[in-house]
Amino acid sequence: MDAQYVDNFLMANSKYFESHQLSFVRERLLALDDSKKFQVQSLQFKDPTMMLIISVIVGGIGIDRFLVGDVGLGVAKLLTCGGLGIWTIIDWFLIMGVAKQRNLENFNRTIL
């Protein structure tokens, strides 16, 4: 892909990845052929800020973990009422990083 497209993609989607992941994403996009351009454009990323808001509001019943794809942890969090609240508070600090990691995994699955 051309560098202009890659730069535009990164400007529009940099909030969905950790800062140290952006160079990896850039390298992968530059090495990608143009036939995968549509697949990359159609990717749906989880918004880390929205995941934090969801975690604060309904994280005690595991909705945040279900949304990032951690079904087992979501069920466990649901059954324990967020680990009696402790797990819920810990997830307020972790859920944004988990969402960004899932976005990178989704990106890698798409471009392979």
From TrEMBL:
Residues 45-93 form the TM2 domain. It is a multi-pass membrane protein. It is found in: Membrane. Pfam families: TM2. Keywords: Glycoprotein, Membrane, Signal, Transmembrane, Transmembrane helix. The chain crosses the membrane at residues 49-68, 74-99. One of its GO terms (cellular component) is membrane. The keyword Lipid biosynthesis does not apply. This is TM2 domain-containing protein. It comes from Mesohalobacter halotolerans.
